[in-house]
Amino acid sequence: MLGTTLGKINTLGVLFAAGASVVYAGYVILSNKILKQVPPIIATAFICLFISLGLFVAGLSSKSLNFGFQGTAWPWIIGLVIVSTICAMLTFFQGLEILGPTKATVLSTAEPVFGVIIAMILFSDRLTKIQFFGAFGVIVDAIIAVYARDNIKEQQNRLTEGRDC
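Request: output the structure for the sequence above.
Response:
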């Protein structure tokens, strides 16, 4: 994604991406706390409602809200809203509730990799060898991180049980 050279990296872009990571981490921690009191479907509904209201007000106040596109775009827009926003958020919250914040976050790092795979299938995009191995590494590392933590906990439990005897 950054390419193979470090000479042309946009520092401002890297800072924004790093900032997004920090904000996302806060979002996951806060969501985990909220999901202890509210079911994922309710949290998803309220988040989507208030985000859409906020964007609507921002669009109106900046006069950038524009519905001047063709009517044939509506099914695609609705599909994006349902699949890419509501379903994605709901399934993440379900995973967060079941797996906990660490596992859910580690597994969600594979999201860009699946985006690339889908782009390769739908749009015939191609990866360089380095990008392919990087994507493969992300998936393998996510799986290892999730299962390694479980194995460590199991070993600690066995050690603790052995001491109690």
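The chain has a mean pLDDT of 85.
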